[in-house]
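Hi L., both proteins are below.
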Amino acid sequence: MTRFAEPAAGAAPTTAVPTERRAKTRHYVMTPPRHFAVDYAINPWMDTANPVDTTVAMAQWHQLRDIYLQMGHTVDLVEPAPGLPDMVYAANGGLIIDGTAVVARFKYAQRKQESALYADWLRSRGYQPVHTRHVNEGQGDLLPVGGTILAGSGFRTDPRAHGQIAEIFGRPVVSLELVDPRFYHLDTALAVLDDETIAYYPPAFTYASRAHLETLFPQAILVDSADAYVFGLNSVSDGLHVVHPAAAVGFAEQLSDAGFEPIGVDLSELLKGGGSVKCCTLEVYS
């Protein structure tokens, strides 16, 4: 059953305080943007009149992968397929926790074939992929933090899928509703930094969802519009290092003040499709 936190009376957000951060070796899955293009528009960032340079996109993607490898993380690859330009956004492919894997059920027809390919990859790695009855867009809207799963809705993932996710993984799920179409997935408006710390952009959420977040994460980092609009929150953290879009300079300063080590990367070409660092990174949680 989906769990909703009750807002505390007079709860107010505070800024994360410096503490000792520890990196943990991570396991990531990525898909090269070999066929990346903006051939349709299913989010406000996509403009079919704005040409995409696939060579630049590949170079930026390789830089991101190389950063992960240099940090000692494992990176597995899923082979992209022609005609599926959004496969580079691997985070949307599903959710994998402790050997259990849910494969995405996409909202838009343009992406539905991706589910079968990610399911095939999961089977090739020994998983038995589980399908939800309702739309879920993987780690785009399903973000584990500690023993809880934060689950987004409003634009992509059906809130009815949240209860299914809770049952499949045996974890409490906190439902959060997004209201700004520019932040159509949870991972565009909220970043998990460690098992207790998140960063988010408050205006992307309903009042009730903001109240839940204020109660659950009173020391969260609250990001300004300038950093949110460059997809600064579409970031990946290993508990110490936070890989984020380089243009989010204010967020980088906030991370440093909170004891994290920010690493900026330029994924501007991939932002043309409405994705950045986290969108390109499916984490295998164990």
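That was the first. Here is the second:
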Amino acid sequence: MKAKPRVKICCIASLEEAQAAISAGASALGLVSAMPSGPGVIEEDVIAEIARRVPPPIGTFLLTSETSAEAIIAQQRRCGTNTLQLCDYVDASVYRELRRELPGIALVQVIHVTGPESIEVARAAAEHVHALLLDSGDTTLPVKLLGGTGRVHDWTVSRKIRESVKVPLFLAGGLKADNVAEAVAAVEPFGLDLCSSVRTQGQLDVIKLEIFFAALAS
């Protein structure tokens, strides 16, 4: 019997939301710093407070739109998370600098699945990071869309990416209780990442969390 995917709840806005997500069964939390667009952005001092208070087994993901090593390193040191989620694409030299300057900090590269061309992008990034996260954004738009779309992308492409890389893979983009079983069967990801489907009027909804985890367990 295959293990159920880990679950990361993104767009955590407060310590109370962090505690609710963990109580529901989340293995990781997404903490969104400044972005060109999308939901869930909070101040860095709030991110730092949540990261300090969350128990060590839980992944604290700093979502960053920065693309220079210097800016990303400085931001992680201010926020103190144990994981960096790179929401935009960066040069290979940036990965090397991050590994050198931030030993022990996990690197997760977001791959925006726009079509089959995303497979090669994922393969290249996988050589440098600890995990990939497949989402439904688009970095080619005038205002980059780096996540939080609530849209499902082509899971057949996601499956091909999973089969062609050796690092763990998180699946994001429009996941909810009524499609999570199909998503897991189609992609077989290591983890799932969700935000809008477990919120009501922007607030984390414990009932929707319970429904999602029940659907995942069934």
